[in-house]
Specification:
The chain is built from ten helices and eleven strands. It is α/β, with parallel strands linked by helices. Strands 1-11-8-7-5-6 form a six-stranded parallel β-sheet. The protein has a three-stranded parallel β-sheet with strand order 3-2-4, sandwiched between helices. It is globular.
Length: 291
């Protein structure tokens, strides 16, 4: 059993990106620039955005954080997004989700210009990804593909079971794994909350990718010997063993499942660090006008 070390891989990729930024600076004198919008003061969102800003610093990007009170109107927010769309100095724009209930997530996603949509959520980017055209791919699936590449995990002809059907992870992951490419060329089954016999289907997987948001959902009897298990879940659960009183737990019961796997991602330190690196890679692509 080998643990897939997302922390280590993300650190390697950050060094590669920093090197490219140096070359861009030499040629054009302009740093890639990522802008993030944060609404309200949700604890988890604050943490995610802080990580993203710090990662920008580490690779030499310029970053701007725009904060709004949760009372901001939808129209004022959309106006700000349109303004950023027109700003040639900004390469990538992300609005940290979730947003307050009076604001439509879908409207935000559709208002961000596709060429600045480094989260890869815009229908244009999702459509391009689906038919195999160059696109900004959603950060978490992109990070998982990168882990497969770096660990040289064979995906061709394998049975890949994706548990979860969200627009951010499950759906794009299922499409990417079935594409004529590496990583890809897998036979894909998608399971979700309404799937009958979910344990039996998971047990058939050569590659099991779990993005449900249910801590410890996947038990040892749901995983076949030698499977590759990718755990996307990150739930905060109470713990008397940590200073903060909380710890992160994945969707996979790691202690039980790990001994059966050929490869497995831990939580934290597996998929999480790769998500931020994918965002940086998309911003770099945008700065280089690659797509």
């Amino acid at each position: 059993m080998q643990i897939i070390d997302g922390k280590k891989i993300s650190a390697e990729i950050k060094l590669e990106i920093a090197e490219e930024v140096k070359q861009i600076l030499t040629k054009s004198g302009k740093r890639p620039h990522l802008t993030a919008i944060l609404i309200g003061n949700d604890g988890a969102s604050e943490t995610y955005v802080a990580h993203k800003v710090k990662a920008c610093e580490q690779v030499g990007f310029e970053s701007t954080l725009i904060r709004y009170d949760y009372t901001i109107s939808e129209e004022d927010l959309l106006d700000k997004i349109r303004q950023i769309n027109k700003d040639d100095n900004i390469d990538g724009l992300i609005v940290q989700l979730p947003v307050p209930e009076h604001i439509s997530e879908q409207k935000i996603i559709e208002t961000i210009a596709p060429e600045k949509d480094v989260d890869g959520f815009h229908p244009v980017n999702v459509g391009r990804m689906t038919i195999g055209l160059p696109a900004y791919v959603s950060a978490t699936p992109n990070g998982i593909l990168e882990l497969f590449k770096r660990y040289k995990i064979d995906t061709e002809g394998k049975h890949c079971v994706v548990v979860g059907r969200s627009n951010i992870v499950g759906k794009p992951m299922s499409i990417l794994m079935s594409q004529k490419d590496y990583p890809g060329n897998a036979t894909v089954t998608v399971c979700h909350s309404r799937t009958k016999n979910i344990g039996e289907i998971c047990k058939q997987a050569d590659i099991l990718i779990v993005a449900l948001g249910k801590p410890g959902f996947i038990k040892a009897d749901m995983v076949k010997e030698g499977a590759v298990v990718i755990d996307v879940g990150t739930s905060r659960i109470k713990s008397d063993k940590t200073k903060s009183g909380w710890k992160l737990k994945g969707d996979v019961d790691f202690e039980q499942v790990a001994p059966k796997c050929s490869y497995i991602t831990p939580v934290p330190g597996g998929v999480g660090p790769m998500t931020i690196v994918s965002l940086l890679k998309n911003t770099l692509k945008s700065a280089k006008k690659e797509i």
